[in-house]
Specification:
The structure is a single chain. With 703 residues, the protein is an alpha/beta fold. Among the domains are: 166 residues, P-loop containing nucleotide triphosphate hydrolases (Rossmann fold), CATH 3.40.50; 81 residues; 184 residues, no CATH class. It is built from 32 helices and ten strands. A six-stranded mixed sheet has the order 2-3-1-4-5-7, with helices on both faces. Strand 4, helix 3 and strand 5 form a beta-alpha-beta unit. Helix 15 runs antiparallel to helix 23 and helix 23 crosses helix 28. The longest helix has 35 residues. The radius of gyration is 30 Å and the shape is elongated. It starts with a strand and ends with a helix. The structure holds guanosine-5'-triphosphate (GTP) and magnesium ion (MG). The site of guanosine-5'-triphosphate has 26 residues, from helix 1 and helix 4.
């Protein structure tokens, strides 16, 4: 078999790596307008020319080759490990032309690893707007590697880049003088290290000298040799690194002077800076932020209500149509009350999920997300987090899983840990169905001036989760004792027009994922639940059936009422009913009955299952397939004739779902990121306690 030709895309954060990756591979890797979008490696394939198909590796952005955070570490390991699976044969360094100096620093470090390198220059349009002109041929000559101007956002320059890759592929060896001479900084002994570990260049040897304790591919014997050598020569890591960066900048200064011309020494005020005068203003900026968030919640509720009612109508009419069409049978019951009820329960929420994801993508794509970090840094800092924590928290509104991974960009370990621990308190899209159905049941649909009351309550729930996240952070901040100096450094990207196609694609993709992922779980759970709710201990079920059949014989005129009563009693004695009843004493203080108890159990692994459980439980044994779920739930009554869903019970459930950790995927990802089961378990327990106590307080106050 041919060895695969591997090309790694590296560069500073937000320089356009993932955009280029998408342009080359045709895949849909996440792109966003803030530093730190990509936090893990991702591969795809690309036909470079008719002879060469390469594997492309997209990597997290790094400012320099000295990793400071977990996402930078991912890139570092791919570049350093000679035996690694992803070890690239060619590196394409993506450099932002509007920030060339800093980007060239990283380019020069990569070049000195002595692998084939191409520089792909992005953001040339922005550089032009800023009045910067770059002499590309000159840059190529001075750097000694091919430089290609591209715009991956508009798919420009890609053929030229491929051609250049093809040329390097046929070239046999790398023949370059290093950008700077490492030996001049360290002394010649660095070659010893290079020999010990067969490094490709003395610069790589320097990196090994700095990090040999953490590099897993080195053998024990090599480590001992390295340590001994470093000891003899009095190696001082920080001093050497500082000297290295200084020498590089010195040479880059010369390159810049020769190849880059700026129109006027006074920097042109670009549009972004003018916008930021308002959007980052201490007062107006925060007002705008509140306004933006407010609009998002109102539209999730109000805007989505129209398509939602169409979906509801579609499913309830399909239900009643099938009901009339199919003969009474076991299969019909399973189909309508098990499967269809479960699916419709979740399909209704597609419009809301799409709107939510649409807005989040807009925030990310326009560059506003990074401003939110900036605006909230003070608040975050006061509870032991920092501005960078906002990104995971906000993306936690979509889903906690990628959000927790996004915390990799936080350099400070303690802040990263706390961010991971509190992110699931942010209301994610899986809670949205639960919120919507309960709010619709117990909160009147009234307008208060401009605002819709239900929309306000929805926003209140999101806020409750957020405030609790801050409170828990503060508490953890007091308990976790790690002293590490923290600072917030984040580049503010220029504002960009959102790519509408990307927004559209994301909305559709996320809706698909939501339906598929939730759909699979829901299908299985609905069918199991339907079975548990339909069957019970045979003796008891027989006894109930016989009793009612006898009663019906005596009173044939009462048949309808008696049948309904029989079905209710059967459900209570079914296996599901038994489970719920066993659970009931624990949840009675919160205002829940055994049906809700079952829903709490089934939604343990994934919250959205709550809705489909309700749909199944309120359908089994009932002849009500033409009603919407909300109507079925509204009609539910307790033994004493009072409705099940009173304000107190509804709000208590809402609070429970805001706080409770009911998501297996989140627990798995927290385990992966913290490398221990201890933390997801701790997280589960504290969130469950919050949920229980919170729900109890809500119920007690309102009833
Ligand atoms: N104007 C302009 N925008 C670009 C260009 N290339 C990429 N972009 C935009 O730059 C932003 C960042 O792009 P990404 O591809 O996510 O950058 P990245 O390097 O993968 O970023 P990280 O994963 O955070 O390191 C997006 O908004 C892109 O649409 C370009 O040549 N010109
Ligand atoms: Mg990226």
């Amino acid at each position: 078999m041919h060895p695969v030709y591997k090309i790694a895309l590296v560069g500073n954060p937000n320089s356009g790596k993932s955009s280029l990756f998408n342009a080359l591979t045709g895949l849909n890797q996440k792109v966003g307008n803030f530093p730190g979008v990509t936090v893990d490696k991702k591969t795809g394939t690309c036909a470079i020319n008719e002879n060469l198909t390469a594997r492309i590796i997209d990597l997290p952005g790094t400012y320099s080759l000295y990793p400071k955070s977990a996402d930078e570490q991912v890139t570092y390991e791919v570049l350093m490990n000679p035996a690694g699976l992803d070890r690239p044969d060619l590196i394409v360094v993506i450099a932002d032309a509007s920030n060339l100096k800093r980007n060239l620093l990283f380019c020069s470090q990569i070049m000195d690893l002595n692998v084939p390198v191409i520089i792909a220059l992005t953001m040339n349009d922005i550089a032009r707007q800023k009045g910067i002109t770059i002499d590309i041929a000159g840059l190529e000559r001075m750097m000694g590697v091919p430089v290609i101007a591209i715009n991956p956002r508009k798919n420009k320059g890609i053929p030229q880049l491929k051609k250049s890759i093809g040329n390097l592929f046929t070239q046999q060896s790398v023949n370059r003088t290093p950008f700077i001479q490492i030996e001049e900084i360290t002394g010649n002994w660095i070659q010893e290290i290079a020999e010990i570990c067969k490094a490709q260049s003395t610069y790589q040897a320097l990196h090994i000298a700095c990090n040999y304790k953490d590099l897993s591919y080195l053998q024990a014997a090599q480590r001992i040799q390295i340590a001994a050598s470093l000891d003899i020569h009095g190696f001082h890591k920080a001093k050497v690194q500082a000297e290295e960066v200084m020498q590089r900048y010195k040479r880059i200064g010369v390159v810049m002077k020769q190849c880059v011309a700026e129109e006027s020494p006074v920097k042109k005020a670009v549009m972004s800076e003018r916008l930021d005068k308002i959007l980052l203003h201490p007062l107006y900026g925060n007002l705008v932020l509140l306004g933006v968030l407010f609009m998002i919640f109102q539209s999730i509720f109000w805007f989505a209500s129209f398509p939602m009612s169409w979906v509801e109508l579609l499913f309830s009419s399909t239900g009643s149509w099938l009901n009339g069409l199919l003969p009474d049978s076991f299969f019909k019951d399973l189909l309508i009350n098990g499967v269809l009820a479960g699916i419709s329960g979740i399909a209704v929420f597609i419009p809301q999920i799409m709107i939510l994801f649409g807005f989040i993508t807009l925030l990310e794509d326009s560059g506003y997300m990074a401003r939110i970090s900036f605006l909230t840094d003070r608040l975050m800092r006061s509870v032991g987090l920092n501005g960078r924590s906002v990104m995971p928290l906000i993306s936690g509104m979509a889903c906690a899983v990628p959000a927790i991974m996004a915390a990799r960009t936080i350099q400070n370990r303690k802040e990263r840990f706390i961010t991971i621990m509190v992110t699931p308190l942010m209301s994610c899209s899986a809670r949205l169905p639960v919120y919507t159905i309960l709010i619709g049941l117990v909160i009147p649909n009234r307008n208060l001036g401009f605002f819709n009351l239900q929309g306000l309550v929805l926003m209140g729930l999101y806020l409750l989760g957020f405030v609790m996240a801050l409170v828990v952070s503060k508490v953890m901040d007091l308990f976790v004792r790690v002293k590490e100096k923290t600072f917030f450094l984040m580049e503010l990207p220029v504002y960009r027009m959102p790519r509408w196609k990307n927004v559209g694609i994301t909305m559709v993709e996320k809706a698909k994922v939501f339906v598929m992922d939730a759909g699979k779980v829901i299908m299985i759970i609905s069918v199991i639940l339907w079975a548990l709710a339909t069957f019970g201990p045979p003796q008891k079920m027989h006894e109930v059936t016989n009793r009612y059949e006898a009663a019906i014989k005596q009173n044939p005129s009462q048949k309808a009422i008696l049948t309904a009563e029989m079905n209710t009693e059967k459900l209570e004695h079914s296996y599901a009913g038994m489970m719920g009843k066993a659970f009931e004493p624990m949840i009675r203080p919160l205002g829940y009955d055994w049906k809700i108890g079952i829903a709490l159990i089934t939604s343990f692994a994934a919250r959205e299952v709550f809705v489909s459980t309700m749909a199944t439980l309120y359908s089994v044994g009932e002849n009500n397939s033409d009603l919407t779920l909300r109507e079925k739930m509204r009609a539910a009554h307790r033994m004493d004739g009072k409705p099940v869903y009173t304000l107190a019970t509804g709000v208590s459930l809402l609070v429970f779902y805001v706080f409770a950790m009911q998501c297996m995927s989140t627990m798995v990802i927290v385990k992966r990121e913290t490398r221990s089961w201890k933390y997801p378990l701790l997280q589960f327990s504290y969130m469950f306690m919050l949920a229980y106590v919170g729900a109890w307080i809500a119920y007690t106050l309102l009833s």
